[in-house]
Amino acid sequence: MRHLLIIHNPTAGPKSKARLEKVLCALGGEAISLELYPTKAAGDATRYLQKTPLPEETVVVAAGGDGTINEVLNGLIGKANPMAIIPLGTANVMAKNIRMPESASGVAQTLARGGLAPFYPAIVTDDSGHKTRFGQVMSVGVDAQSIDTVDLNLKKKHGKLAYISAMLKQLPRSLSNTWQYQVAGSTDRHICSTLIISLGRYYGGKFTIAEAGDWQKSVLHLLAFQKYDSPIKALAMQLLWMAALPLGLIEYMPGVETQDVKKLSIKELNLSYDSAPVQADGDIITRLPVTVEIEATPIQLLVKI
């Protein structure tokens, strides 16, 4: 019998709570056993999993948004347990990438009867040597700066609109962004204004940024946005890229370079910043400089078969 350890945030909004209840009710008719762990604070899921011995056959289920999924992913470092998700949050990039069913009954069926597929997370190592896993998207630039300054009260009330508001406020400051990245094994150093690294096809939920992205490949999908010296040109290109994002065309826009890599380093060249924020899976995880690399060994992810 499959055993599920479902980790969830008890302070989630009413819609998330109602959806979780529907999934739990649907699981009641399946031949599985389960236990619930309500998190107590930010980062608690990671700490709990790291300190708690688990039978290897226990499937650890992240019930929540991208942040909860990331906490569970980091909590499973060094463990062989399979992972699954119950998508509840705002974006749910991983749910889109692995084509998790949207209905509560479909999610329950996947948890109870789904199969295991290999998935390669990535690791971000900062200047202090601290390592953080991510499973969806990492970036530096205007989107990371927006997440770093988003109004949390506005986010609670209006979801994604809060990020759009923060991004518009950050646009003038972002025009001076200057990052340098270097792919492992190459002597070339590249300059850009924003850098997005994806492990799959989607960004921010349903927006396609890597049409050929495959979440089962052990590769980092890199999108580098050109740095422009002219503020007017830089602003015009930022607006063009923002307009292309919901259309799924951003990787084809002028000024956007794409590349699949295994490892790269990123640092800041704009000395007007103390240190630039790095976001992964929707939260700020550290500051530049960092090294990013795909993990050599996959975790096992529960998916629909």
From TrEMBL:
Keywords: ATP-binding, Kinase, Nucleotide-binding, Transferase
Cited SUPFAM superfamilies: NAD kinase/diacylglycerol kinase-like
Molecular-function GO term, any one: kinase activity
Family matches, as PROSITE patterns: DAGK (PS50146)
Listed GO CC annotations: plasma membrane
InterPro entries, per database record: ATP-NAD_kinase_N, Diacylglycerol_kinase_cat_dom, Lipid_Phosphate_FormReg, NAD/diacylglycerol_kinase_sf, YegS/DAGK_C
Every DAGKc domain range: 1-128
UniProt key word ATP-binding: yes
Pfam families, per the entry: DAGK_cat, YegS_C
Keyword Transmembrane helix annotated: no
PANTHER family (alphabetical): LIPID KINASE YEGS, SPHINGOSINE KINASE
Name of the protein described by the UniProt record: DAGKc domain-containing protein
Organism: Pelagibaculum spongiae
